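Example (one chain per record):
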Amino acid sequence: MLTLTEISDRLEIQDLMVDYCHAVDTRQWDLLDEVFAAGAVIDYTATGGPRGTLPEIKDFLGSVMGRFPAYQHLLGNASIRLDGDTATGRTMCHNPLVLPGDQGAADGGVLHCGMWYIDAFVRVGGAWRIAERFQEKSYMHFAPGGPRQPKSSRQAAG
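Predicted structure:
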């Protein structure tokens, strides 16, 4: 049976994972300072990104994610193993990215990325942080954009 401390630790780590998704999905890169520990190593090479420190990854995200009109992270199964003030985790993530089409419109299709986040967590000053993260790729699938919708006769006249 889990202790109240273990239950609290698991919930705090799950909230940390959601905080990561929120920071990235809202393009608020500085919020990642509250997610990652000082000196954290982040490795996105499995899905074509870099491996680097938090400042390097924030620069990368700021330069690359603006190319996508929309995207979101959906977390699924999470396996969290606690060991005092450290923990490890393997969390499923589905990350669809809308691709720009003509003149930047969001009709270029959707790239569906499936992966796991493999994390090492550490408790710092009473709060959980990610000390190390790397991605384990599961799949990438491109779904082309649908045909353009013709204007109805009412819209065409308007």
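Caption: DSSP finds three helices and seven strands in the chain.
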